[in-house]
Write a structure and sequence with these properties.
By secondary structure, this protein is α/β, with parallel strands linked by helices. The termini are far apart.
Length: about 250
Amino acid sequence: MYKSKNRVDKKVRYGKIKIYFLIFFLLSTIIFIILFKTNFFEINGIFVNSNTVVSDDEIVSYSGIKTGDNIFKIKLSEAREKLIKNPLIKDVTIKRKLPNKLIINVIERKKLAAVSYMGIYFVIDEEGVILYTAQAVEDMYVIEGFEFESFLKGEKIKVKNEEDLRKIIELCSLLENSDLAIIPKISYENENIILYIDEDFKIKFGRGENLSKRFVIFKAIYYDLISKNIDSGSVDISHDGYPTYSPFGE
């Protein structure tokens, strides 16, 4: 009697399992068809945010994503990797907006200065990454005097005395974020940093130690001289003593 009841219970459980499996199979099939066999989740809109240099069309093209693609079939990580290979793009986040939209948020690299080498300008950002090359540049801090080791777009520029270049890039950032209405040339001469304003105004920063402090001193001296209609000469703030000013010719 006990064995007979046990066999009935097993058959009931087995029957329930078959029903559950069938329901699961049917639901999975329906979900699969909805997700991948209908156009409900086909991308019909790709929206790009926060880009000013690289156009929307370029970003979408670089990503490899196309309208009509199934939103669940695309690999967001692969699209992101493709985008950050563009030297002008620093970082990207891509989000799905169901059922059929994609949002691409872009962080672009911003040009800061141009490093001059044999008649070519390597335009870099605040991290020293080469964004592009140019035959001529305008309205940009130009850096001269470095010996190159290697250069490749999208990677940090390689020069001898890299630490000194880092200091000059910091100086460019200080200039960029200041209220000074000047775009000087910055020269690296005998391991010293010299800032030229219209070739007639020369500021010696020395080896670039305590650069932020020296920059504050430079601003104060520059504004004082300009207020006195003095727009040429040489200012030396390369040492820790009192800064000095000398007119050219003395």
